[in-house]
Amino acid sequence: MSRTLVTSALPYANGPIHFGHVAGAYLPADVYVRTLRMQGEEVRFICGTDEYGTAITIDAERVGEPPAEYVKRWHGEIARTFDRFGIEFDIFSGTSTCPYHTEWAQTFFRRLHANGYLQEMTTDQLYSSSQDRFLADRYVVGTCPKCGFENARGDECPSCASSFDALDLLEPRGKLDGKPLERRATKHWYLDLPKLRDDHIGAWFESHEWKPNVRNFVAAMFADLRPRPITRDLDWGVPVPEEIAAGETGKVLYVWFDAPIGYVSMTQELGEQTNEDGAVDRWWRAPETQLVHFIGKDNIPFHALIFPSMLYGMKQDFVLPHAVPANEFYNLQGRKFSTSAGWVVPIEPFFEQYDAEVARFHLIASAPESSDSEFRWEEFQKTANILADTVGNLATRVLRFIDKHFDGAVPPLAEAHRAELDAEILENCGAVVDPAASVREYRFRRASEELLANAAVANVFVDRLAPWTLRKTDPERAMSVLNTCCEWIGWIARWMVPFMPGKAQALWAMIGQPGAVADQAWPGLPQADSWRSLTAGQKLGEVSGLFAKLDDETVAREIAALEERASASA
To answer: CA-CA distance, 211 to 230, in Å (whole number)?
Structure first.
């Protein structure tokens, strides 16, 4: 039996995450994991915060906090956002706090070095005497060597759109303090990606099936692949092993190199927490493991080329990715999300007013799977109202009718009506589809549509059979129709679990079913001779409205507030 190891890209612990992040890498993974678990598969879901790097040291200094305290604060903030969305990892750790991370990151470095996949190079880099450190490109400005624009960035000119190396800038200076920078020679280690490509990774990638955006991105990288630096001059990070640094001081592993190793170190941490001996061997070295990375498209090179190269370069039988379902960018109301520009949906105020599970479903239904997509308040309104009409209204009108006229218990099914009603709901009220098949193909938007279509089947059924009318003319048939509706509501509840687990549980309780609906087996497709499972006479639970509708005034107010935030930031 295969086992599935699921990771979501480690969010960087220097700011909040927004809807775009959630829709791109975390919510689809959560839906995928919940589906597989209900199908009886063994799954681990690994994530944590990425906590090292220059950006964190500089931002921590700016707010006057030690880096460790700074990342701890943002780790907590990011974890709370995931909790708001009901995203449940098996472990959510951090690269600076995981007790096994430094050891694993240094082990990767040592093994790659011993196996001939690292190169040492001495190069010039820009150094700030005023800040006493080398500066990454993002913290460098200067005069463009192409057009003379005086405020060009470290790798690109916003005036003429030219790209270049930061060393090519004229009169380079620090972005934060405006002080001039100087060139200094420094030694670093580089991952020999061309050698890893030629040894195995190129053939492995070409033989594998990928999403088109992943294949195209990596194929373009293969055409101009070069060794990539994996160390930095910094005091916040995993130190280069002393025996290899050989007297070089202040060298740490580049944050992009150590971050994906966090998937391995956090697996060991999880194994320690759950008393699973040999967790890394079992999940990372066993051929039956299927490794799936959920990411945004900006992380494609790291998860489809660089990290697989690192895993292979260990020469210790680490599994390589089975799938990298990279999503495109998720925008907001026609523009990119931008916290600094005020173009965001503030998380706390949002969840004080709106239903988190409706937000879950909407982000899944509008996910940027094959092209960029966006959160629009008008579309969020439409999703909320469709859920209210299709699922919420079905439950309340059927179950409240039963509560009022049939003593609040599941009515009996007359054997004389069974075959006819089975045929009617299973064959004549619309196509019934198993959403799990689409989830397994990473087609979450289609899966959400299939869930709604399955719910619509029951609405067609109850409208056609009209039990409120039958109650007066043929009460036995009316009870059989309502029994069938209750059965279908139970199926909807189980289909809903990966998408809206809280609403699924509420619906499950409404039809009087005990325990957690998430612990039920995935229902698949109903079969005519075996799809019914409810007991007649089972008392219903408390029936309440599942979804609130949104009106046009609310939507207009939110769009106006978004524009006001952007204007204030500008």
So the answer is: 27
Residue 229 backbone dihedrals phi, psi, to 5 degrees: -65, 135
- Residue tagged 């706090």 (tokens): 97
Provide the sign of the torsion angle of the four alpha carbons 27, 29, 32, 34, taken in this order. negative
Share of the chain above pLDDT 70, in %: 100
* Burial profile 12-21: b = 16 or more Cβ within 10 angstroms, e = fewer: bbbeebbbbb
Parallel/antiparallel/unpaired status of strands 231-233 and 251-253 = antiparallel
| 27-38 vs 356-365: helix crossing angle, rounded to 10 | 100
In the chain, count of helices (H) and strands (E)?
A: 24, 17
SS3 state at 101 = helix
List the domain boundaries for the chain: 3-106+256-332, 376-519
- Checking if the pLDDT of 1 tops 70, the result is no
How far, in Å, CA of 292 to CA of 209, rounded?
Answer: 13
User: CA 469, 471, 472: angle at the middle one, nearest 5?
Assistant: 75
Domain at 3-106+256-332, CATH from 3.40.50.620, 3.40.50.300, 3.40.50.10540, 3.40.50.720 = 3.40.50.620
Q: pLDDT tens digits, residue range 296-332?
A: 999 999 999 999 999 999 999 999 999 999 999 999 9
| DSSP 8-state assignment for residue 369 | S
Of 497, 474, 569, 483, the residue nearest 533 (C-alpha): 483
Report d(CA 397, CA 102) in Å as an integer: 58
Nearest in space to 539 (alpha carbons), one of 415, 403, 405, 404: 403
The 10 Å Cβ neighbour count of residue 564 is: 11
For 314-359, the three-class secondary structure string (H helix, E strand, C coil) is CCCCCCCEEECCEECCEEECCECCECCCCECCCHHHHHHHCCHHHH
Q: What is the pTM of this model?
A: 0.95
Output the CATH code of domain 376-519: 1.10.730.10
